[in-house]
């Protein structure tokens, strides 16, 4: 009897150690209840400036400012390289991750819906709930300073989308934007009495899509801790059911020791969790292709950090983070802005496999032969850059025109057959020229519109013209490169022909 009581006591201590090991007090919101984790000073925060001060990053070195009508943050003083600029407590973010198994508000978001949602949708749910709370929300001050109108493409009208002069992107914006409504319909189906309205859901969806951060951190109750608990339960079962005290005590003592080690050094409970989060006020920082701020996730220490880049930050400079290197269609779809001279902008040419029939010696029979191959699927959508077509795309065209052999030799992709090279590049030049003829207006006209007729026009009109102007510039640069390549290939063909005649 005494042995059994000791075993029960040992199991109780073990479970307590294991659970506490997986519950870092500095990560008090990893369970999905971060709204309840906030300390009392956060309960009455109703203004964005109070938020900033309470989060500890509105020092004399930072100030909110507007540049060209866009809100941002400037450095009032200099920062050294790698110097922390912002430190945000982890329990003030609105996050979602795979460790959040239970709905924090089952009457508003059912467990059935919650359990099937990914990390992003969990954040949408939580932000929508906080929005519905109004001033009683712990995040009321932050929410009050968030935009209520968005320039992301899902909010554009049909006429505004036409100004993009990009049917593919307009289609994606129209039908891709319905994903939020489909998700909301699923919420209503599983939670008929939810207090979240469709408008609030759409708003939260857009905020999360355009302002959330994703990262991986150490936290939560790991599978290793669960294994410790299972092992201890197994040892207890052996002791009580099968009367095998020696084996049971070995298991129990071993797992208790493991739990103590875990609590002391965090060996077993360091489970890496992929998380998505809204970071109040941190998202005031604007984007730049060459940011001077770097985001460091120190969630295991209870905070997230923004640190100055390798070159530091000079006083008076606006501070920037990077939203990643991407094309303007992505930036417009997700964030609602463009980079006028985006260095990695691409122009997508569609259905090259069909258009090649007109300009290259590709028979319908051969096209049918390769129609189900990866080659043809690749040519259905080809992205070109200012520097021209990618070598792999040119080779795919060559394979479609010629035969399934290698047309290049050496690392420099030197053509083996100059006549085939000329044929391929001439076909691509013709296809690009045809694409340019489909434009409602040229690059010069877009430049004139931006310079002379922007007064009185909407921001979305300007964004659309900037978007299509950059795409056109990319394709014109690509055309120039292809024309030079075709001329060079033809010169090699002519030279070879002369040599053949002499011989």
Automatic annotation (TrEMBL):
Protein name: SET domain-containing protein
Chaperone is among the record's keywords: no
Gene3D superfamilies: Rubisco LSMT, substrate-binding domain, set domain protein methyltransferase, domain 1
Residues annotated as transmembrane: 217-240, 247-268
Region annotated Disordered, chain positions: 483-503
Species this chain originates from: Apatococcus lobatus
Keywords: Membrane, Methyltransferase, S-adenosyl-L-methionine, Signal, Transferase, Transmembrane, Transmembrane helix
Signal sequence residues: 1-22
